[in-house]
Write a structure and sequence with these properties.
By secondary structure, the protein is of the alpha/beta class. It contains 15 helices and eleven strands. The structure holds glutamine. It catalyses: L-glutamyl-tRNA(Gln) + L-glutamine + ATP + H2O = L-glutaminyl-tRNA(Gln) + L-glutamate + ADP + phosphate + H(+).
Length: about 450
Amino acid sequence: DAYLAAIDAANGKLNAYVAVTHDKARSMAKASDARLAKGDGGALEGIPLGIKDLFATQDVHTQAASHILDGFRPRYESTVTANLWADGAVMLGKLNMDEFAMGSSNETSYYGPVINPWRAAGSNADLVPGGSSGGSAAAVSAFLCAGATATDTGGSIRQPAAFTGTVGIKPTYGRCSRWGTVAFASSLDQAGPIARDVRDAAILLKSMASVDARDTTSVDLPVPDYEAAIGQSIKGMRIGIPKEYRMDGMPDEIEALWQKGIEWMRDAGAEIVDISLPHTKYALPAYYIVAPAEASSNLARYDGVRYGLRVPGKDIADMYEQTRAAGFGREVKRRIMIGTYVLSAGYYDAYYLKAQKVRTLIKRDFEQVFDQGVDAILTPATPSAAFGIADQDMASDPVKMYLNDIFTVTVNMAGLPGIAVPAGLDAKGLPLGLQLIGKPFEEETLFRTAHVIE
Ligand code: GLN
């Protein structure tokens, strides 16, 4: 009731939730009470969570913040959310996001932007919470849920976590099932939690992760007790500092934050090693070929026949066109056009195939570093703190918006786990995050090292 009241009071301003499931929350909480009274509560019994609108929730609003999915209520539950409910968690509602998870500011949502609960000192200007999981990050930051689900294709868990002073982990590709999560770029998409601290993130990920026969890319490995990793010493661990992440024009305060992070690691007994990831500079352009290519294919299913919105036309082809024209927003259309272009017969080799090769090189960069005994890599999470709503630079130039992902996309391209952890405030009092990148399926190392920073 306290969380529902907090949502009802704050959501008019923050716009973090696109649907609040009052009745369902109360009935799930009652069922939790009954289980607790019998002494058989699960790991998340009674914990109220917000769910990103990308996860299919049975009979509940699921629209990926898009107009084209108007009225869609799936008859099935995503594996990730089913896992959470099986452990006793309670659903508060569905969280706002960029349309189909495409964006870095939560401004592409059909439901309008989410407002970051943080403001710069002495300013009343509204800031973005980051994207695409902006609703998840804002809701956790503003105490409108105890934790949230999120997804990350190129940074959408870690960048909003960094912008809101929360913790977000993108686990290794395959750690969480993608079944029932609306697909953006299937070879990059991973679910993960956004939480108030590293421990909460560890507890949530333990529950979300599972192998799943309905997602053949999910991996059959035991899910460790991540919480047990927290508080373990990092003495003797080797932390890599990649020189290619020291970008031209990186703001001094980001550089200073990174330096502080290095010192904290060293003080905790870790060994700092300079490393090189030479293909880093190609990651962003390659990502913005691979992700739109997969998106254009995944989004072909929204044709007015099977889901949501249908705009009648003269004939079926006209109906498809009218529906897609009215149903998709500008950024989604841009991605579909880029994607179909790079996959087209004449350009496939020059763009898509090339980007796939670059992807392999990026993956190899990481493999070489890990082979040399590096346990985790420390970088900034974002190139800046949260920026203003309707920022002119970003709005007029999509490439500027894409630059937000500069430190995060490499991790998705290589399928690795990455965590963003709050590490301090900038000169205006806004949160900044550091990122730790780990070896495949070694999320425990990330929880251990991130806990030293938080
Ligand atoms: N900002 C990136 C994009 O727009 C990443 C999005 C995401 O991780 N879902 O594609």
